[in-house]
Fold this protein.
Amino acid sequence: MNALPLPLGRPVTRKVVPPVGNDVVDLGDNETHLDQLHPRFLQRVFTKLEGHRILSSTDSRVSLWGHWAAKESVYKAARKRNPSLPFAHSSFVVEDWEDVAAESCTGRIAHEGWDYLVDVARTTDWLHAVALPLDSKREEPKLVHGVEVCPEELDASTAVRLFACERLAEELDCDARQLTITRTWPPLLLREGKSTGVDISLSHHGRWLAFAAVLPC
Amino acid sequence: MNRSEIHDRIAELVSPLAKDRAALESLTETTSILGDLKVNSARLVDLVLAVEDDFGIEVDDDDVDKVKTISDIVELVADKLH
Ligand SMILES: CC(C)(COP(=O)(O)OP(=O)(O)OC[C@H]1O[C@@H](n2cnc3c(N)ncnc32)[C@H](O)[C@@H]1OP(=O)(O)O)[C@@H](O)C(=O)NCCC(=O)NCCS
């Protein structure tokens, strides 16, 4: 915990905002069908155990993209701690996985000494993974996330920023027009050009946009 | 295989994976694979595997991480072939 001095000299404790990652997969996209993937895709991206789990699932396609989204979401969170982190999918190993054929499931990924918990929610149209460091979960961070259709007239990067700003304005009790999300990596949520201390992650695939954010307590 | 032949072959391999058709039509050495062509990260894996098969080379994840543009991938393949 960081102690921030108040103008009056009284210290106030503020919890460090944990890094969040998220990834959305459009299950209606033809690209997600197993026969559309390169024959060595499974071998390249997943460990033997993950591959076995995927192939023996009641819904291998959904299980594959659930594992994929879990890895991508943890990569996005982990890269905030280590900006030079290379993305080797097979080094993000999904453990304690429940079958994602259900509406939601969780998994755990240990990476570079950190443990991440991944929540995967899904409908028939999309699958959305949100990753947070396991230790931060105990402190019950204020997590906000959402999935929305991408309006046809907007490019996905613009649309996901507008969508996240609208949802976060409700949480921050301000006008969405005061909020912007930078095009930098990692993306930053600003209020009238100033830092908000909110940690944010964006994703878009096919028809869907998604974000996850952690608000400072 | 010279650099220009490698470039042409890469352009063919990337073509079915690129989401931004306009960027594909005006493809240059500085075109970015993720940013301009909008190849998403799942299709990037397919591209890497297709490059491996086509040129008979192995490309590891650390190599992929350095690839941002068409020129980077052409360079990578040329290095592996020679
Ligand atoms: C980050 C990455 C994993 C996400 O790609 P994706 O699934 O296609 O795209 P998503 O829509 O889920 O996420 C995009 C968002 O992630 C964020 N992002 C962009 N680059 C990023 C990076 N290098 N690291 C982490 N997050 C990044 C941005 O917010 C971006 O949104 P924006 O384009 O609107 O600004 C991918 O861009 C990447 O850099 N991959 C590394 C290379 C790789 O895959 N190597 C192995 C190949 S074998």
Remarks:
- The interface with chain A takes residues 40-43, 45-46, 48-50, 61-62, 64-65 of chain B (CB under 8 Å).
- The CA atoms of residues 46 and 58 of chain B lie 13 Å apart.
